[in-house]
Amino acid sequence: MAIAACCSPESTTPFTHDDATRLAKVFAALGDPIRLKLFTLIARDPSQEVCACSFVDELQRSQPTISHHLKILREAELIAGTKRGTWIWYSVNTQALSEVREFLS
Amino acid sequence: MAIAACCSPESTTPFTHDDATRLAKVFAALGDPIRLKLFTLIARDPSQEVCACSFVDELQRSQPTISHHLKILREAELIAGTKRGTWIWYSVNTQALSEVREFLS
DNA sequence: TTGATATATTGATGTTTGTCAATATATCAA
DNA sequence: TTGATATATTGACAAACATCAATATATCAA
């Protein structure tokens, strides 16, 4: 007879691979220092809405790089942007954030 | 005179690049579907401690791959492992988790 | 329309990542 | 000691990623 298994056989992954992939995408979006700073700049602005135009100076990355990171945060639905004239104003998607918080609690 | 800037000049990044890098590492650790499943398997086990030996079967990845992912979760201090004989029992580092939760709140 | 500014896209490049096979190390049982 | 099992490390490789220069698109002002 084999040695008893160390783990209960009935333990299962609590979500599907697709669900895990979707949620992992949200965490991965925050998994880069520049994006984490972008996110906090957007989240913690007193006015709750920030335009993208200052990020290049503040984060010392080229404009295409900032644009690329904002896209990743948008695609993870952590932020949303509204175009007003030439500028885009960003704000945090509080619902997506709640889902992440719920996962961690 | 130039057009008024769209953003308040006094807005600053709320943490240093090193801090952002460290926290980003934690998010990045959760930013992969396999690691997210590993983490939930460890976090949600009723006994609060899980041995690594079943992960290969459950997650359908090779043993070196699972070992690699567990190392990344360990280095992000999201989990901790205790060796008991041949097996390693994993549990969640609740303090690291609190810090992440605090950031998101 | 023309010039200036904000943002997006494309293409290129070096780096990092996820994965596995092969191998190594550690522990236990016989 | 020998064999079996759990985990770690190494080396290799393809895919994904972060970055920038160049260019494109969109909007506003003159």
Question: Can you walk me through this structure?
Answer:
Two copies of one chain form a homodimer. By secondary structure, chain A is an alpha+beta fold. The first copy, chain A, has a single domain (17-103), classed as Winged helix-like DNA-binding domain superfamily/Winged helix DNA-binding domain (Arc Repressor Mutant, subunit A, Orthogonal Bundle), CATH 1.10.10. Chain A contains five helices and three strands. The first copy, chain A, has helices spanning 17-29, 33-43, 55-59, 63-75, 94-103; strands at 50-51, 79-84, 87-92. In chain A, strand 2 (79-84) and strand 3 form a beta hairpin. The longest helix of chain A is centred in the first third of the chain and has 13 residues, at 17-29. The model of chain A is unreliable at 1-12 (pLDDT under 50). At the A-B interface, helix 1, helix 2, strand 1 and helix 5 of A face helix 1, helix 2, strand 1 and helix 5 of B. The first copy, chain A, binds a DNA duplex (30 and 30 nucleotides) through residues 3, 6, 32, 34, 51-53, 61-71, 83, 85-88.
